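Database export, one record per block. Field names are fixed; values are copied verbatim from the stored entry.
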Amino acid sequence: MSELVGALDQGTTSTRFMIFDAEGNVVSVDQREHRQIFPRPGWVEHDPVEIWSMTTSVIEGALARAGLHASDLIAVGLTNQRETTVIWDRETGEPVHNAVVWQDTRTAELCLALGGEEGPDRFRDKTGLPLATYFAGPKARQLLDDLDLTQRAERGELAFGTIDSWIAWNLTGGIHGGRHVTDVTNASRTLLMDLATATWDADLALEIGVPTAILPEIVSSIGLDLQCVGPLDGIRLAAILGDQQAALFGQACFMPGEAKNTYGTGNFMLLNTGETPVASEAGLLTTVAYRRGKEPMIFALEGSVAVTGSLVQWLRDNLRLFDDASEVEPLARSVEDNGDVYFVPAFSGLFAPHWRPDARGVITGLTRFANRGHIARAALESTAFQTRDVLDAMVADSGVDLRELRVDGGMTANDLLMQFQADILGVDVVRPKVAETTALGAAYGAGLAVGLWSDLDEIDDLWAEDRRWSPEMEDSERERLHHRWEQAVQRSLDWA
């Protein structure tokens, strides 16, 4: 039996294919960025055709780099940017429009109208989610309305899905018999799924305005038996997980009370709550962590932050403060502290725990003393401050004081940020040896489904610590800085 498993990781800014061995080590990887399309302020789109082209390219590239063929893989797992919404023609396979990205805010007025007198929590009891621009159901409704496609949708001529559905459909044949599916983690991000039953809810679909005829089949996260064609011909697509749930799985957070934080385009903290969904009173999301076969669902509390790593890209591309993202750390280190400068990157409003679509980005505390270094440092610190806000909410909801926070994602390579994160949280921050745990989680799910790993304990044994940062800041300074951050947040509100 082959002991290599593949993971297709389709993210917000890039797509990559990684191959892992039975010890969880990286054997090969290929990665390519795709375009970010900004038609209007607050609107963010991707080209689904470009994403599918990148998908085939990185699969072929990773196999070629290692001198492998698809047949050398035992299975493949898929993980994806969640909430990003695609609608396509079932007969032609052509998208009807660009994908509407999870960061996009065009549904703000629709979400307000859907909330009515009950407000953003109208559907929270059933879905675990507030009515917000973040989620996929309203995005689908907006596309159908804007393009006058509702009747075609009702006739079943169109297919809707998050990016996992689009990729899986194409991987398994597309117009030639492709499977229209989504896993339970992605379905739980649409505002259309009943958390208690893991099924589409007809009343929700009717209220939000998404015809049930376009919805994919909801399947478990782990244990799928979907046969691939094309670049992975004959290989079993055995797992699908939304990217943050995949990272939770890749961090081996299998026990209730274990948490991880992923530092990517945005930041996403998930806390495993076991087989019981925990209703949030502090602005967090109740979501599905994963489901293995017919076993009970495992749930999580999640705090989502829209802009963290993408803020570094913005400093690079829009302000031209540096040429490469890796230069942000030395620039931030060029000053001793933030100089009382705070950067609230509410480019798409504020997500958890605030849920304020009216917020917009602000830089506060500027004087003639401030320079490029202070802005770079304030940008990095904003990631840590936003994480602190989410962790405080998570502790309030769960009653669990975290002993440590497992972290992953590209920004964990930034030592200055990680130390400040430990300082502002007051707990240890721990990075694993494989920092890109999103792809690893998808690989673990696929390998578990086909017997490469026998159980969760075997996967847990593979997790290994790479680096630990412990708090060095005095409590009084920690609280002073966080109070100033809270003042800055207040200045970002009521703008849009």
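Remark 1: The radius of gyration is 21 Å.
Remark 2: The CA atoms of residues 373 and 394 lie 32 Å apart.
End of record.
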